[in-house]
Amino acid sequence: MTIRTKKSLGQNFIFDKNFLKKISSFILSDADDVLVEIGPGPGTLTEYLFDKKYKKFILIEKDLRLIDNLNKKFTSKKISILNEDALNFDFQNKSITNSIIVGNLPFNISVDLLYKLTKINKWPPNQKKMVFMFQKEVANRIIAKPNTKAYGKLSVVIQSRYNINKLLDVPASMFTPIPKVDGTILEFIPHNDFRSVNINSIDEVSKSAFSQRRKKIKNNMINYIEIIEKLSIDQNLRPENLSVLDYCEVAKNI
Question: What digits encode the pLDDT tens for the residues 173-185?
């Protein structure tokens, strides 16, 4: 089947079998897991995931053109192929607890989807692990540490909920069509370090701080100055100097 990619859906597929096999090697599952693949496209990675252990395998594909091909390619009572938008899908549904979510995410929705899977009130979430592809620059922002230029609101919010491991860089030449940027695969494992802190409060505090990252926090976090004083945080620091713990402590005291 010849597949024309849709630019509007941010489609960039990987066909290199050795590389796909390498990616699948990072995804370990057992008979009690629910595997969820977002944007399987032509099913090239799906072929390697198909042979793994799982209780149920769900494929979420927005492009209706690809659904018939996936239905013909993967036939099993354990597999459900859904023509849905992942941004609207209920990943916290009770039927998909203990899930492992994977995907070569379209770069144009990757951050929005990651926020969707992070900014939920119920914690820990259904997913016990996620393995996603991001634009390399975005991945660097997600895993950035304090006191670096890449560290920002995205780093704080996501790290407040997940331990993140960088698995693999993916050169642009691996994709069809070839994008202008490289990709990076990250693994996300939920942690409970700050489960008592409202995720929207963490988002609110970090958004306020990094809205003017060159200013000192005594100027751009004026709404939280009493909390900052209570926590004995140096008001002359800049937003990138505060740790994820610092931001979570401020958010906890709102």
Answer: 988 778 789 999 9
Q: What is the per-residue DSSP string for 85-139? A: -GGG--TT-GGG-SEEEEE---TTTHHHHHHHHHS-SSSS-SEEEEEEEEEHHHH
Q: Are residues 12 and 113 in the same domain?
A: yes
Tokens of 224: 């939280």
Please report the pLDDT score of residue 84 as a whole number.
Answer: 95
Average pLDDT, consecutive stretches of 10 residues, N- to C-terminus, the chain (254 residues)? 55 83 93 95 93 95 91 92 95 91 89 96 92 96 98 98 97 85 96 96 96 92 95 96 98 95
Range of the domain at 136: 7-190
The residues, any chain, with a CB within 8 Å of residue 15's CB and separated by 6 or more, are 42, 44, 176
**φ and ψ at residue 75, rounded to 5 degrees:** -120, 110
- Please, what's the b/e burial string for 70-105 (b: 16 or more CB within 10 A of its CB; e: otherwise)? beebbeeeebebeeeebeebebeeeebebbbbbbbb
Q: Is residue 2 part of a domain?
A: no
- Whether the CB-CB separation of 220 and 209 falls below 8 Å is answered with yes
Instruction: Say yes or no: 54 and 99 in one domain.
Output: yes
Q: Decide the pairing of beta strands 127-135 and 175-176.
A: unpaired
